[in-house]
């Protein structure tokens, strides 16, 4: 089995493709312990990965704030298997208009356009925090099992 990395266009297509795949977000807590969580995400026009770390859900954004960096993995768990891993700096947005916009975009990817507003409005609140991570490093492979 050959390791075949994806080029930038294939990485973007994989990340932005449908059906939307959940990502696994890895961060480091302030005390140094690791933290991982599944997240929904979207890819902005400039390649920024935008995801929800809701303040009221488990660890919230604190692990992202602790180091200002995160890593993310997205995989296709069906044969022949493919994956993309990313890492990069994290920025927390408290701008409610920005939060609402991205909440709708992300919800539309996972729940469909007809439910985007419903899910977007349910998660877009001042108690939520949204993070954007323009990836600096990545690895990928497609058709791993071929």
How far the N terminus sits from the C terminus, by CA atoms, comes to 6 Å
Main sheet properties = 5 strands, antiparallel
Quaternary? single chain
Q: What is the level-2 CATH architecture name?
A: Roll
CATH fold type: Pnp Oxidase, Chain A
* Count of DSSP strands: 9
| Outline type | globular
The number of distinct helices, counting runs of at least 4 residues, comes to: 4
Strand and helix order: HEEEEHEEEHHEE
**Low-confidence region ranges:** none
What is the C-alpha radius of gyration, as a whole number of Å? 15 Å
Structural domains: how many:
1
Sheet/helix structural class: alpha+beta
User: CATH class, please?
Assistant: Mainly Beta
Strand content: 25-35%
Query: How do the strands line up in the largest sheet?
Result: 2-1-5-6-9
Mean pLDDT: 80
Find the CATH superfamily. Answer: Electron Transport, Fmn-binding Protein, Chain A
Percent helix, as a range, is: 25-40%
Give an overview of the whole structure.
The radius of gyration is 15 Å and the shape is globular. The strands form two sheets. A five-stranded antiparallel beta sheet has the order 2-1-5-6-9. A four-stranded antiparallel beta sheet has the order 3-4-8-7. It is built from four helices and nine strands. A hairpin with a 5-residue loop joins strand 1 (23-28) and strand 2 (34-39). Helix content is 27%, strand content 32%. It has a single domain (8-139), classed as Electron Transport, Fmn-binding Protein, Chain A (Pnp Oxidase, Chain A). With 146 residues, it is α+β, with helices and mostly antiparallel strands. It has helices spanning 8-16, 62-67, 96-111, 116-123; strands at 23-28, 34-39, 41-43, 49-52, 69-76, 82-89, 91-93, 130-133, 137-141.
